User: Fold this.
Amino acid sequence: MPVRTHLSVSCLLFSLIASLGGCARDQGRDILHQLGDGKPSELFQTSVDRMATLSMRDNLDSLYLLMNKLYQRNPNQWKRSGYLDAATAERQIRQAIEQRQPLAQLGQRRDLAALSYALDPEFRGDRVGAFIYAIGSMLITAHGGRSEFFVTDTIDPLFVNNAARNIEKATWMLSQRQDAQGVLLLFSNEISEAGSNLSFAVEFGKIVARLDLLAQMLDERYRRIGLNYAQSLLLMNFLPVQ
Assistant:
């Protein structure tokens, strides 16, 4: 091989190796950057655990957005809570949900008992706060009393599915129930000649969709565990330990 050709090939190989080395370094930096953005606790989460955690976070954020919108549509409600303003009411209700504290106007009611009470025409307290608190506490209860999940935690897909169905029913009741004078208990969605506002239904729909997706993922995971075990029995194989 002529010296010039040999040098050309060597330069090409050197450039290729340098390029691959650069790609490897870039990928390494990307991985380190991604790890740096995460929390150490994520090392103890499976992909489904992480999905459940993010789903819960997004569902609670949707719920807090709905609370804000309901207070705007029903400004007389936060005044019944005894707080100075709507922002204070929202902050206190959010804290009660996330720290699993009781809400004074609901007594010791949580979950479904709180939801039924909040939608009772005879209820005289802050209906917005009670309604949002009831759904928030129901969501956390349906996920085993947690809002963050790790490999040692178990979530029953049936309870998650039931929570989705409960929210569908509660959303319908919210749009239909009236007091003794025929006035809606809470104003939410609106369809009139002046315009339409279906943002409440859309946001509730997002929560239901996330719950349904998580329930399907959980059900498939548990189903695959059962199928793998059944296959191991059928084929007389030992189960892997690593």
Summary: The helical segments are 3-37, 47-73, 86-98, 111-118, 127-142, 157-176, 199-234. Residues 45-234 form one domain. The CA atoms of residues 56 and 147 lie 6 Å apart. The chain has one domain: 45-234.
